[in-house]
Amino acid sequence: MIGHRLALWRWNRSYTTAVANADVVVCGGGISGTSIAYHLAKRGKKVALVEKDSIGCSGATGLSAGLVSAPIFWQDTSLQAIAQASLDLYSHLANTCKFRYVKCGRTYLASSMANEILLRRMYSRGVVHNDKVELLDCQSEMLERWPFLQTEDVQLALYSPEDVALDPVALCQHLALIAKDHGALIYESNPVLEVHIGDEKQVYGVSTKMGFIETSHFVDAAGIWAGSHLVKALPHQHIQTAAYPCTYSYIHTSKLPTGSVSDMTPIFNDLDGNIMLRTTSFKTLCAGFAEESVRPLARQTGSAAPWQHPEPDWNIFDSNLEKLISRCPMLGDCNHGDLIVGMEAYTPDKLPTIGESSQAKGYWVMCGMNGQGLSLAGGLGKILGELMCESQSSTADVARVDVGRFIDLHANSQYLIGRTPEVAALTYSNLYHSHQCHTARNLRMAPIYHQLRDAGAIFGEIMGYERPLWFEKTPKSERNALMSGQDSLVGKPEWFERVASEYEACRERVGLMDMSSFSKYDITGEDAVEYLQFLCSANVDEPIGTTVYTGMQHQKGGYVTDCTLSRLGDKKFFMVAPTIQQERVLVWMKKWQSILKARVHVQDVTGAYTALDLIGPSSRYLMGDITGLSMSSNDFPTFRCQEINIGMATGIRAISVTHCGELGWVIYIPNEVAQNVYEKILEAGKEYSLQHAGYYTLRQLRIEKFYVYWGQDINATVTPVECGRLFRVDFKKDFIGKKALEEQVERGVNKRFVQLLVDGHDKETDPWPQGGETILKDGRPVGLTTSAAYGFTLGCQVCIGYVENKEFGVSPEFVSSGHFEIDIAGKRFTCRLNVHSPSLPMISSEHPLHYRPTQ
């Protein structure tokens, strides 16, 4: 192509030595590397882009089919924003640089009820932004539009008009050209030899084949080679990344023997067959993602050894080919085809990884694109540029893609080899919060795991940790206790009756939950109080024995995390944060420890304690029995902490906070005595009909009580003002984000956190809300739900989420007037709104002080 040749001609390829210094060195000339180089150069940064081969011509980008998924594909709003930013960038470049860019759209096909509901949910969120999104349920109409497809078994088709097919090589080269026009230097055939780090593990330079480049920032966007670069000063001599390469295969063959295809024929994704087809007037590309056809790559020896590229294997691809020909019989008439094996890096959770590594300052990563590199890299490059230049992103919440969501175990190669083929098989699957993988399980477990399993626990995994989701009534000795897949989207899930029973126990008697996966930290030192006062927006300088619920805000007022802080001594605190925050919070606290030069020691003690949550009106009596102490509301009120003994076991931390609004205690037990204490609790609990309960019960309880969950309901884009937690903020002291919150209070907010009680919903036959549903007021979209659960006391589906009014703000009148609905998979339901926690009847006569999370 002309644009392709122009790109090769316009940058100087005669370099024999590298530039002496740069603000940022970007490694990788694929779509990730060229995107971040483009965005940084446009921000005025001096960028050196180094590529071991040629820009856009190697790795996953070079073998890419050039297909870009529209935002409608993603359930998560942050990923939608990232995908939209990518499309906006590519569209702009195509208009100005003139390379192949075809807005052909995409058609998703569903042959099962489960995937039909997925498409209806996609349609519900897509039609809000694009009225050209279509649903087709008439097979004759499908056959008329796409006569080369077999559609007899297709129940529903969704047409998304925004999907694109483009030239990925030309795109990368134009991104590099524009970066060069803004001062970037481009070095091809120049592999990175070593990344140098010095004092305090700070990057200070990069050695390349052409020479040394002095820099304080290195971006590893090297695709399947990310994390392979030599860093001698680190224990493993390289950065550990939670991404691993696997193969994917596709067939390149001739045009279908029909006149009914053109370049504008949409891309086809058969969700039930897990296959993809792109047919044009001159070629046909088709792929399949059966798990058995995906292979993790192997190396000879060492992290720097080259990946072994497997040869195409028609026998392995056969199951995909059979489905492709079944869906498009004309493929069988093509007289030849090349089977191409590509390589892509996959992460344990099917989401890309960006951000600054905690292992070295100034070492940034942008990798693990999971087969969606083109769809997301344009937006991710923009976000990473914002993070590097401003510390915060204004484009989207980055928590879902942040490198800090992983811990060391996720970078273990055996773990990744076990998990990533399954992830690769899910490339075009739409996953919800309930989804559980079936591979690489039983890695992190509480000491009482086997006792919980014997009691009937069905486990779900989070951060590698197995935690009970619910308990079977009569567990069988031989059974699979690990949940895999995701909950049904229509009608009552299989666990409904069991969770109802567990919920009843927690509300009327006493329930026992394993909360061991929660992140836990000990914070000690001379400056502990002053340090935590500055990091936390609530006042944590309370008497010894007090527990405080607080947020940690960033400079713009959004939540870095929420947590509880228990004061164990004058200069000693115990902090509990969400499970998914284990690494991210530790990095944040250590960052500010360094900035403030605080004399504190922050220690991650997550794996040192088993946490058991005793919930319900009888918990006070049970706790009294097993401790021999008075647990009255005077002697041990809510939001208090105390070190206790249970039987012969000592060193147990008891905290009167249940994380769901019910009366109770979480007890943090040293692991070596956890089984002994667990057995004591079970024995003493017989008198009060104690019952095991799982995490699903906690979810039902907290949503009904209007409690938030970090990562779903609150995140870095949400402030305490917007989510109704302002009363927990102490403006009498200084803290990170104080000025931003004061300004927001003064000017008002344009979104508000609400609870929605859904009317007219049949829990037996209707689709269930999952989070991400559109909220409508008088027929106009005004927000999205974030979490949902069935309210057993309220007797209806309960959602929580945000309503928004960017033009006039969200006043009390806005919330109290008008007709509100939510759209669940294309079906609208009337809702009643709460802006405060509902007052639910309780067996106990006392309501805990922390009962109302909003006011």
Automatic annotation (TrEMBL):
Pfam entry (one): GCV_T
All residue ranges annotated as the Aminomethyltransferase C-terminal domain in the record: 751-835
UniProt family annotation: Belongs to the GcvT family.
FAD dependent oxidoreductase central domain segment(s): 394-445
The protein's name in its UniProt record: Pyruvate dehydrogenase phosphatase regulatory subunit, mitochondrial
Residues annotated as domain GCVT N-terminal: 449-733
Native species: Caenorhabditis briggsae
Residues covered by the FAD dependent oxidoreductase domain: 23-387
InterPro entries according to UniProt: FAD-dep_OxRdtase, FAD/NAD-bd_sf, FAO_M, GcvT/YgfZ/DmdA, GcvT/YgfZ_C, GcvT_C, GCVT_N, TrmE/GcvT-like
Gene3D superfamilies: Aminomethyltransferase beta-barrel domains, D-Amino Acid Oxidase, subunit A, domain 2, FAD/NAD(P)-binding domain, Probable tRNA modification gtpase trme, domain 1
Tree of life domain: Eukaryota
